């Protein structure tokens, strides 16, 4: 399974803002609208990097990509443990994980970014998502 490297977002902009972006694209400052939006987001993230870093540490978030396999969850259950998952980035729960195993192994799930899991896993964990 190929891990995705991005998540698609949809946003609404006012017509004047959209026109200004198109003007900058037309004049060659950006290659397209998406390039402008990605650049603007990166600039804002850079501006607030210190605050984000402190929050990541305070909330004990794992940064980046974290995959939870069936074996990971079975090992937690066998050890009598329940996982408190906290990810900033992408959390993946493997396709071969059953809804019952997910409920038995995961006490709480906080994902700032994206969660990729089967719909039945998301439904089974809905009351544990924070």
UniProtKB/TrEMBL annotation:
SUPFAM superfamilies in the cross-refs: Ribbon-helix-helix
Family annotation (InterPro entries): Arc_rbn_hlx_hlx, RHH_8, Ribbon_hlx_hlx
Source organism superkingdom: Bacteria
Alphabetized CDD domains for the sequence: RHH_NikR_HicB-like (cd22231)
GO BP annotations, alphabetical order: regulation of DNA-templated transcription
Pfam families assigned to the protein according to its UniProt record, in alphabetical order: RHH_8
Protein name per the record: Arc/MetJ-type ribon-helix-helix transcriptional regulator
Phylogenetic lineage: Bacteria, Pseudomonadati, Pseudomonadota, Alphaproteobacteria, Hyphomicrobiales
